What does this fold into?
Amino acid sequence: MRVTINSIEELPALAAKITAQYSNKIIAFYGDMSAGKTTFIKSLCEQLGVDPTEVCSPTYAIVNEYEIDNNQLIYHFDFYRLNNEKEAFDLGYENYFYSNHYCFIEWPEKIANLLPEKLLKVHIESVANKRIFTIEEIKS
Amino acid sequence: MTKKSITILGIESSCDDTSAAVIKDAKILSNIVANQEVHQSYGGVVPELASRAHQQNIVPVVNQALKIANISKDQLDAIAFTRGPGLMGSLLVGTSFAKSFSLALNIPLIDVNHMQGHIMAHFIDEGQKMPEFPFLCLTVSGGHTQIVLVKGYFEMEILGETIDDAAGEAFDKSAKILGLQYPGGPLIDKYAKQGDPNAFKFTKPRVGDLEFSFSGLKSNIIQLIQRERKKDANFIEKNLIDLCASIQHTIISILLEKIDNAVKKTGITQIAIAGGVSANSGLRNALLKRESTHNWNVFIPKFEYCTDNAAMIAIVGYYKYQNQQFANSGITAKARIKI
It folds into this structure.
């Protein structure tokens, strides 16, 4: 799926479309700094029932946790600060990825070899003032 | 009759740094953060990221804190530890250590909220002036940006916080965009001193009165650089000090605008800052200037109590001890926890 977004107001509709169309709980977000990864994750979290004011950048924390009503969690990762994949082992990434909770992953490039085989890839590209979203389901 | 003094060991392991501190009443006897020195003398490891490094560092760090404080284990009255917020794996190390240590020594266990710790660092007694209640505290670090109304030692209310990036992150990521190393916040501060803060204009975020947003600034800087580099490939190199000065000026004006709003809303002019960004000279100077221009009372803690440290956990422990607010041994770490 390829979608062009002209303004931030169009993000909730895209978030609704993605959650309706795909059942993947693990989603990796690719895009340069300032492409809008965190902003779009905020929309997705809201769609899933999280108060959007709780969603903020996990760059420093590496993982933020948000609670959805029915005891489901969303783990919001940012691997930007990682120097190597060993550091992902050190923080116990597998406990999160295989927890059956949602995992939204920013900077998945940093842990390319550790990503689960099945996942949804969301590419965000910034072109002029628009954002082009490309959604790709990896079934392994 | 003199009151018996209270000695507490504080443990902090919420994110990257493992730290231990010993406090006697409100005075810090030692405050150790895992670093090269600990590594050399006790065989711990130099921390990279939040990681299992905490496991290797916790015992050496605690040993060194006790040694420097010249306190033996059996002189401790309680163990205080960071329960959250933070990274689960990191919190677990401090939590399990504190629980077992308190059980082994048969002394009370005290759980501490890391964000409360940042604010309470102002009450570490080093003979400095301390804020009086109620006061406003701006907590600014790599992971947090919030304005808190502090009504009492344990009565705090978040008035506003960031909706996206933290202020420290804004500094670090701006530095990265300029090709400086990550985290480069301190470099921006350094170069900013020589540059023109009004050389480049960045748009201010449109968010609520007491909310912060810094992610738009990133886009602004990237757009400016992409545009200008088409004309001159050496744009960054030629304008580095002015870029740094303008970025720093923008981040600080955003912070100040929100504090101004909070002052207007609450009528409180006692302003404290906390968190690692308190080290930024531009922010310190801007706040201190307001002492004379706006008649504020500004409080800035010593730098070692601004970044993540166990001294701030120990001081909370001291106040909770006096209230007999102890945790039971079934307590668990919590990644998400509000003030």
